[in-house]
Amino acid sequence: MVRRTASPSGPRSNLGLAPAPHLYARLTTGRLMLITALCLLPVALVQLYFLGCGLIWQFLIIYVTATLCEAAVSLLRHRPLKQTASDCSTLVTSALLALTVPPLLPWHLSCVCAAFAIVIVKECFGGLGMNIFNPAMAGFVFLLISAPGYMFSTFVPPAEGAFRIAGLGATYEVVIQRQDPAPLQERLHEAATQTDALSGATFLEGLKTSRKSGSADSMVNIPDFTTGAALYYSAQAAACAAGGLVLMIMRIIMVKMVLCYFLAVAGFSYLGHLWWPGLYLPELPTLLVGGTALAGFFIITDPVTNAGTGLGRISYAILVAFLIVVLRALGSYSDSVAFAVLLGNAAAPLIDVLTRRRPYGVGYRRGELL
Amino acid sequence: MSEIVGVQGELKTPRVSLFKLFTRGLWSENPGLCQLLGMCPLLAVTTTATSALGLALATALVMLCSSLIISCLRFMILREVRIPIYVLLIATLVTVVRFYVQAYYPDLYDQLGIYLALIVTNCIIMGRAEAFAGRNNPLRATADAAGSALGFGLVLFALGSVREILGNGTWMHGAAQMLGPWAASLSTTLIESDYTLLTAVLPPGGFFVLALFIAGKNALTLRRQRKAEQRLQIKSVMR
Questions:
Q1: B1 vs A100, B4, B67, B76, CA distance in Å?
Q2: For an interface test with A, which of B165, B197, B222 has the most A Cβ atoms less than 10 Å from its Cβ?
Q3: What is the domain extent for residue B160?
Q4: Domain for residue A8, yes or no?
């Protein structure tokens, strides 16, 4: 994992050099972020196919807002604009945010959540490499808490070939001109096969309703790969895995951490389903629905906001997995990935302390270290 | 004994003018932005501008009266038991204000809830009584309390306004219940009626907006200092 070592807040250098040590790596922060953003492309394509073109507008709005906010902050902080523009972290944050917000969200809310994610969550804590919380997830949570009505009225049911119905023009009218999204959603509903399987806006929302009556086990026929929703969720998970595999091969993300995360999600949901079948889903649906796969490959692996040591990263992944499974069953919002990631981020400094490496030559006897 | 205390107090703090006492509470030692006292009501009650204004007025009233009375009685209050006596005095005043608000402004009373009674424990009032009113004459104590009360009230009102505008798109909503029928025209809807941004009204929004206020205040205060420092720097070192 590459962390930016030279602190930009240190003494102002007149020679354009960072303090020693001068390590050279071909994988600069900008290149790393660009690769991550490219690896998100398969996920974006799957969402375009199943959810329509709203994603494109969301990404454009969020990216423009985020870039403007970054530029404004770097002007305020007297940082060179070129340096801010050359790391593509804003691109990754905007892409993740655009993939998580509902595709038909009105543009002003997208602007607000992008500005919040960049200005307050990222830059107020010191900018790139210094932020405690994942900006994309914090922006999503901000939106979820701020406008719960909009969040659930602008989701679209996944339908095969939705990009034909919800094309660029149709989504432009809803997102930018802020027309009522209901007619478009209605048409998508008709296009989706077996819409009866989805009683709510999303699968997880429907699940939440049925869970309140303690009958979540009646909805677990999701690995039936014929329905549109199940196909969408498995395609999305596969796209995440494809992008994640590239990142793993390029050694950008830690393989052990991702493996532990998915094993932990599967294990916790298996146990939960074993003991409280009315509350917890079995392991396969838990792995597929919502943002579990996206979180595993792209969100918890964010080098800035997770723990710093290898063991710490694995514990962090297991903690987030546990929180996702438990909050999904007991939380009051339909999906829990963002909340779980934020709680995990808050715990990451503590995990760092608990998994501190033993310096060579000390700590063999009890009580010698610390 | 008490005369010695007075001498000690005057030796510690150089005498400042009445005007400076007043403005000190407004800006350089603002209770909300600098001393960070009274955070509990500051964050809890400022969901709308009206309730913030109500609490600001109630706090200011209690603060002025308590400072005046404490500084009048400062030679009679035994040094060893001064804190209980201050608390007793402040609690009496708060009870009076609370009954008054309950009788005449029941809506505001419901809105403020427990925070009206909790003015007793507001550290600003206690802090002013302990740090200033207990060792200065009534005129100076009143000026100091007025400055602090006004500074705190302005922060409360500004925070309430920003949070209400961001959160609900309205300003001074429900002012008529508190200030009388003439204030109905104050209640304005700035953004379309179905607009909400709940986070601004919820507790995290209070922290965010207050933090931005403090940051803004610090930036303004440090600006002059930094400019003076820059003037002394050697030109070639500066970029």
A1: 70, 5, 21, 11
A2: B197
A3: 2-232
A4: no
Task: Examine the domain organization and report whether A155 and A33 are in the same domain.
Answer: yes
| Structural domains of chain B, count | 1
What is the domain extent for residue A72? 24-192
Dump pLDDT digits (tens) for B31-67.
Answer: 888 888 888 888 888 888 988 998 999 999 999 999 9
pTM: 0.84
Q: Based on the fold, state whether residues A166 and A203 are members of the same structural domain.
A: no
A6, part of any domain: no
- pLDDT, mean of residues B107-123: 85
Number of domains in chain A: 2
Is B220 within 8 Å of chain A by CB? no
Select the residue from B193, B198, B209 to test the A interface by mutation, using most A Cβ atoms within 10 A. B198
- Say what the ipTM of the complex is: 0.80
Q: Please report, rounded to a whole number, the percentage of residues in chain B having pLDDT higher than 90.
A: 37
Q: Are A337 and A292 in contact (CB under 8 A)?
A: yes
Chain B residues whose beta carbon lies within 8 Å of the beta carbon of residue A148: 198
* Stated length of chain B: 239
Query: Could you tell me if residue A7 is left (phi over 0), alpha (psi between -120 and 50 degrees) or otherwise beta?
Result: beta
Give the tens place of pLDDT for each residue, A2-52. 344 444 444 555 556 667 777 777 788 889 999 999 999 999 999 999 888
Query: At a CB cut-off of 8 Å and minimum separation 6, what does B109 contact?
Result: B98, B101, B102, B116
Least confident of A127-131, A225-229, B17-21, B234-238: A225-229
Pairwise CB contact (< 8 Å): A147 & B197: yes
CA distance B45 to B112: 7
Looking at beta carbons, which residues of chain A come within 8 Å of B200? 146
